[in-house]
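step 4 of 6: structure.
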Amino acid sequence: MAKGRVIIDETICKGCELCVSVCPKHILKLSETKTNSAGYSPAEMISDDCIACTSCAKMCPDCAITVEKFD
Amino acid sequence: MSIIFKKTRALTDLKMHYCPGCAHGIVHRLVAEVLEEMDEDKNTIIAVPVGCAVFANKYFNFDSIQSAHGRAPATATGIKRVHPDKLVMTYQGDGDLASIGTAEIVHAAARGEKITTIFINNGIYGMTGGQMAPTTLPGMKATTAKAGRDPQINGNPIRMSEMLSTLDGPAYIERVSVSTPAQVTKAKMAIRKALEMQKAGLGFTMVEVVSSCPTNWGVTPVKAMEFIREKMIPYYPLGVYKDVTAEEGK
């Protein structure tokens, strides 16, 4: 299965959790330590099991997610 | 390593003002991605509404015009007739399109104006603070229907796609949603088809997007997406309501 990673722009993320709710591998979570300038806790990757399915990026209303696929 | 998903060039770098989890951002991106893929983003003019998407012109990295409340189809009609070679779109919410702008959308559709309308149906007035819209579901609470919409007092919701599909002018009308990644992909395909049919000069095209308003519905963004699937879609069934190309093929 393809491997990849997501890069989340923490300054843009509004912590809506839509990406967290659709991730089939459950590797996204809202940060418990970080807060951005707008006061939201941004989403972050909590494991390396990303399969580069782009489900999170498709649901992100703020275009905060970039997805990379490892070749 | 390759980048397989990144922000499209047809959106600006500006941070969107929408509430967390608002589906406007998803639909903005879909419109922009389709235009980039068709390489038409420098050849498009979009008429934006009054409502939450009033600032959409700041996020779309292509030409746009601000219309009077509900009058985006009239504005787009004028633009398309002067610039028949451009792709002309309107982006409207349910208060804008189904309430104050009902006359404009019905007549633009009836005339078969060669424009594409993106209709965001989230069953509530967003910008003004959660008042009842023409599309609010029976029993759904709004600030002007505290106990929930009562059809005996407040009337019944309007299904715009069904209504407009009875006219002869529209070439393509589809209702989609964005509550799951699969629905987002389908919504993008519908927007692409509508724009391609406009390019082919077939007539009026509209994509209705069953959308969410977590803030005014008073739920989390994730619960709002569940509400779409459980309550909105049964009342507003997804599907193609009019497609002249399919009719030709019969």
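step 5 of 6: annotate
 - The interface with chain A takes residues 1-8, 11, 15-16, 18-26, 29, 178, 180-181, 184-185, 214, 220-222, 225 of chain B (CB under 8 Å).
 - Strands of chain B lie at 2-5, 44-48, 63-66, 87-93, 116-121, 170-177, 204-210, 239-243.
step 6 of 6: archive
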